[in-house]
Amino acid sequence: AERLQREFDAVGFYMSAHPLDEYGNLLDRLGGVGSGELEQSIERQGGAANVVLAGSVIALQQRTSQRGSKYAFVQLSDALGTFEVTIFAEVLAASRDILESGNPVLVQTAARIEGGQLRLTGQSVRELESAAASAPVAIRVWLDGAEPIGSLSTLIDRDARPKEGRRANGRIRLIIPDGEQDVIVRLDGGYLCTPELNRAIRAIPGVIDVKEI
Q1: Domains in the chain, start-ordered, CATH in brackets?
Q2: DSSP letters spanning the chain
Q3: pLDDT tens, the chain, 213 aa long
């Protein structure tokens, strides 16, 4: 993620990959729409619809209306392109801290096509990582034996257990070879199953693969 952000800071776009690529399965489960499919999706629904979008924040331009209310135009990008969301005072006040350049966010929008132009109004904004943590995700971890279990257990206890006051719906299954059959170990409890956790698990020696199911 840091490497991709350095790419963007240097040349103004993501070259080797996009930060949202690893969230593809999650966005499908959340009903997210890619920017390249957005206009067609709205047109199929009569020109107006509520749409879930995810994007990395590119820039935020804040304005003040004649009545003194603050609002902002937020530019975001996903793997298919860029788009702009207008966010008014109440939603802006609730989400301003997470609308920083490079942050991946999930935006619930009211979308409409007026005069051939697509207009997106933000109704709520969440950190994409927070949305990932609360989503009902299951991951399977294939091991080459029992040796990685200690390191894996330490990682899960440190990074995957929700902090006090938070809930998580993720499930983790370990698949360990045992002769001609595999042993499946189901870990109890809800976990924060995020792309960052998946990457950390893959880095443990003895882990063969990690997949969301």
Answers
A1: 2-128 (2.40.50.140), 136-212 (no CATH)
A2: -HHHHHHHHHHSS-SS--TTGGGHHHHHHTTB--GGGHHHHHHHTTTEEEEEEEEEEEEEEEEE-TTS-EEEEEEEEETTEEEEEEE-HHHHHHHGGG--TT-EEEEEEEEEEETTEEEEEEEEEEEHHHHHHHS--EEEEEESSSTTHHHHHHHHHHHTSPPTT----EEEEEEEEETTEEEEEEEEEEE---HHHHHHHHTSTTEEEEEE-
A3: 454 445 445 434 444 466 677 776 677 777 788 888 888 888 888 889 999 998 889 899 999 998 999 999 999 988 788 899 999 999 999 999 999 988 889 999 999 998 888 999 999 999 887 777 677 778 899 999 989 999 999 999 888 887 766 777 788 999 998 877 888 888 876 888 887 888 899 999 999 999 887
